[in-house]
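Reopening this one. Same input as before:
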Amino acid sequence: MSREQCLPVLLLILLLLPGMALAQGTYTNIDVPGSTFTYANGINTSGEVVGNYSDATGDHGFILSGGVYTTLGYPGAQVTNALGINDKGQVVGGTLLSSESPGFLYDRNTGIFTPVTYSAPGVISSSVLAINNSGTLVGDAYPVDSFEQDASGRQRVIRINGTISVYAGGISDSGTVFAFYFDKNNFLRDIRWRDGKARALNIPEFDAGQIYGTNPAGTAVAGFVPSYFAFVYQEGATQILNYPGAYSTGAYGVNAAGQVVGTYYNTTGGPHGFLWTPPSP
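Same output, byte for byte:
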């Protein structure tokens, strides 16, 4: 049975479980004009979306604000991925250069890119995945796990003993990091991480759900079950997101209004970006 055939059956089973609901609301497609694929990776309170796309000239980052796409290109980079944005308009992401692969912080007010690299022996590449409104960011460094960097530039690794790897995808304004990791038995675990301590984040019935983003308050998280569907979890309730006609949907960011951004694949290809807006209360 193909993924396209499995998805309706899996959704039906999940919707029979307590606390599960198929998300209502509005889905909006996000495809950069002229692109061959588009990822929508982050969203702030104003509804500005960041992501990355590919076209005939290469791989670029973008900001979508008020219906207008602005291309982002790290100086000298072959690839620029915009992965997160805060309410101040600061954008973070990752790059690929000929000699190195640093993460970056981009200040839209000044137009300046600042490289971000986790300072540890043996680090080959770094990528910044999210930034909160205090300027604290979280990223991924290969082969060191994830890291946190505050606004002053102080860094520390996010590591859990006995794990294979940790992926930190979101950070709230209070400094709580939301992440997932694989334990020594290769089982996936979702966590909250704060001040060097991890607490389990148990999303009912989602043993395989990977968290990729949080809202500023840290009260909602978005993620997905790889190759199938996305979800948003808030106040003990899980809503399943499945872009209409898609056989695979993933969520990467959620804002204060509950809007979610991510990607989807359908029979015409992909990935395509999307914005999901919840119904009015």
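So the earlier flakiness isn't reproducible anymore. For the record, Residues 1-18 have pLDDT under 50 and may be disordered.
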